[in-house]
Write a structure and sequence with these properties.
Layout lengths: L2 E5 L5 H18 E14 H5 L8 H6 L3 H6 L1 E6 L10 E3 L6 E3 L3 E6 L14 E6 L6 E8 L2 H8 L3 E6 L7 E4 L5 E2 L7 E8 L4 E9 L15 E3 L6 H4 L3 E3 L3 E6 L2 E6 L5 E5 L6 E11 L6 E4 L3 E4 L10 E7 L7 E4 L1 E11 L5 E6 L2 E10 L21 E6 L4 E8 L2 E8 H6 L6 E3 L12 E3 L1 H6 L11 E3 L5 E5 L10 E5 L36 E17 L2 E19 L4 E11 L2 E9 L10 E6 L5 H10 L4 E14 H7 L6 E5 L4 E4 L2 E4 L8 E11 L5 E11 L1
Parallel strand pairs: 40-44
Antiparallel strand pairs: 1-44, 2-26, 2-40, 3-6, 4-26, 5-6, 7-13, 7-25, 8-12, 9-13, 10-11, 10-12, 14-24, 15-18, 16-17, 17-24, 18-23, 19-22, 19-24, 20-21, 20-23, 27-28, 28-29, 29-31, 30-34, 32-33, 33-39, 34-38, 35-36, 36-39, 37-38, 41-42, 41-45, 42-43, 44-45
Length: about 700
Amino acid sequence: MYRGYIINNINNYNQINYYNNYINNILNSIESKYYLLSLNVSIPLSMYYQCLQNSQIYYNLILENAYNDFCTSFPIYYPLNISFLTNYSGVLNNTNNTYLDPNVGIFFYANFLNFNISNNQPQYVLINVSNPSNQQLINYPVFITSTDIFYWLQNGYNLSVKDLNGNNYYFCYLNNNLNCNSFNNNAYGIWVDLNISPYGYVILNISPINGINSYSVDGKEIFPVYDNFSYQNYQQFSQYWTNNTPITISYINYGDHIYSTQDNSFEITYKNSIPKGNYLILFNIQNNGYYNAYIQLGDNCNINLPSFGNPNSLYVYYCYNNDNNDNLQIYGQNIYAYYINLIPYNVMPNIKVIYQPNFTYNYKFIMGPNLTYDFSQYNDLGSSNSNNNFTIYNNNLAYFSYLTDMGNNYYSIPSSYLNIYNLYLFIGFSFYTSEYESYNLTPYVYNDSLALLYLYNSTNLSIKDIIFSNTYWYVFNTEKYYNSNNMIFWNTSQSNYGFVLDSTNIYNKIFNLNNLYNGYLYYYYENGITLMRRYQICTTTTTCMIGSCIQITTCNTYYLDSILYTNYNPIINISYVSSFDNYNNLYFLNATLNDNYNYQNYYFYLYSNPNLDKQTALYLAFSTQIPYIEINYIKPINVINLNNLINLSKDYQKAYFYFNNLNITIFNGKIYQGNIVNNYTYSENFNIYVLNTTMVNTLYKDQLTIYIK
């Protein structure tokens, strides 16, 4: 604190000491101890630019009631425990609808339009790809994307992919329908051909370029098997496949019709030989003939081709090739072939974004007494779902809970799945905790402020979560799930497949859970996972005429497209559990946590908006991530509460308090405009913090002069 004093008409130092001590006593009595917390919130380029009016997704966000949720009122939650410093709660400076709980964390909304970017930030992304195994990875395709890479690709830029020594790497652009091409057509990411030694790594420098990169190639040069079947004739087809009997190749939209000219079975063989090992086979090939049709790789991998589907279907199987340098073969008599891709599955490389340019904004929170809070605008927990109810919690397969609005309180009501289904509570999201946490069947009451911040505390349903009212966001901390099993369930749309979105995103794989290795699909991810749920609501009407009645049942199908994000890279396992009916199948999503980390600051964001279009959801899954938050400092400060000082000044009849920036004088319980002090005996100047609660918890710096008359 800066101090200075002026002496008028004082003849000895005893008087100086007296006044100095007198003012110190005044200052101590009018100041209170507060804490100031400074944090930076950073977002990637895509999250800022998608909010501008020239963005290709801008009008989608507006029309689908998602603009505020992703642009001007994005919910920020940061787990934080500073109760060892203070038990005072806090607010963001100059607000009363934000909250800092010293035992739980920080809650506020961010307006990304206020963020700014440093012009000297390098425009490239650094990604570390490491090999966690003792196997040598040779010509190993690895999928690479990030929010900034996605932004560059969606805005028409091509990419340069090099290591830190300037060596170029071959890659293909992952475009719509999983086609991996040499050209960028609003791609989602890239598949890069890498060689990595055992337990080694490579750092990729990926940057946007305007020209053509000769190292961007077709997927046939990246994967052991890749084909999107766009052949116009047999001559083109025979460059990559051989056949044992005459066949005809006829081009159809998005694929080829392949059939035997002698009305018998054929065998086509991909020319590339395939090393021994584990693979995922992604394909869309359908049997249109009378004979059995199947894919063969080695002695143990035999996959029957489906006799149904369309150009947008996709099937993913796990296969082990036991025959080194074997070839993939397709048997049939009459097939429609759209797509096939063989992806090595021996090792899952670790992928970490080291650097990407971003936008940053600084926020300051005040913690201390006499702060005001107003959460009245958030008392609408039921507004974004029918019947004013939210399905929030599931502690086991038998019971769920939902919040319902009872005037000024919210009740957590336990119920069975059947009851929730009959109530049409289609939020489609719920929690499942470990088997060791007992379930409480007693309804629990929340007041408005608790419903805002805590859905459940440690003595009731044992979860500390946040639901962001006025948004479609749900946020939950992973700490309670550490070393527990099934974390979340999702109601998906088909009986055999998991997370679905038109086969366009390899990180939203559609797969047959019965044919995956150990029944699980393992993958790391940094972008969001899109979740689609289909459900039906049926009504029956009865019409009676002349003694006979006819019942007519009408069913409407609805879709709920949602997105799941996290701020760390878990391993995601998905397993099929059971089905309620054709439209409400239960799948469990597990997050495998690493024992070497403390998961207190890790959490999931779920966005579940019934207005969201599936293509918008897909875009947001790649363009958005949980903002990066960094605490700059937490420091104690002495603060003068301006409103309190007005009352306290009555106790100091000889003291005048002048605030330079405000240009006001406080004396004897009143405020005077300007500096009204003329004749005085002694004064001291202080650089201080002032809290003005009449201006909604506003903290600012000012210079205070205390005059003694």
